[in-house]
Amino acid sequence: VYRRAHQPCLVCGTEIRTRELAGRNLFWCPRCQGTGA
């Protein structure tokens, strides 16, 4: 989902989230790519 921040996920339609970590941007779907916890 690279560079799809705030756009709908192509699989489920949930808004793609983004966050910066160690100077890099992360992009993920909170529904399809859960927290892993």
Please tell me about this protein's structure.
A hairpin with a 2-residue loop joins strand 1 and strand 2 (24-28). The protein contains no helices and 2 strands. The termini are far apart. Strands 1-2 form a two-stranded antiparallel ribbon. The protein is an all-beta fold. The mean pLDDT is 91. It has one domain. The protein has strands at 17-21, 24-28. The chain is 0% helix and 27% strand.
Q: Which band does the percent of strand residues land in?
A: 25-35%
How many strands, which pairing sense, and closed or not: the largest β-sheet? 2 strands, antiparallel
Going across the biggest sheet, name each strand in turn. Answer: 1-2
Termini distance?
21 Å
> Which class best fits the helix and strand makeup?
mainly beta
Average per-residue pLDDT, rounded, comes to 91
Low-confidence stretches: none
Shape descriptor reads globular
SSE order, one letter for each helix or strand? EE
How many domains? The number is 1
Per DSSP, the total helix count is 0
Percent helix, as a range, is under 10%
- Tell me the Rg in angstroms: 10 Å
Q: How many runs of DSSP E, i.e. beta strands?
A: 2
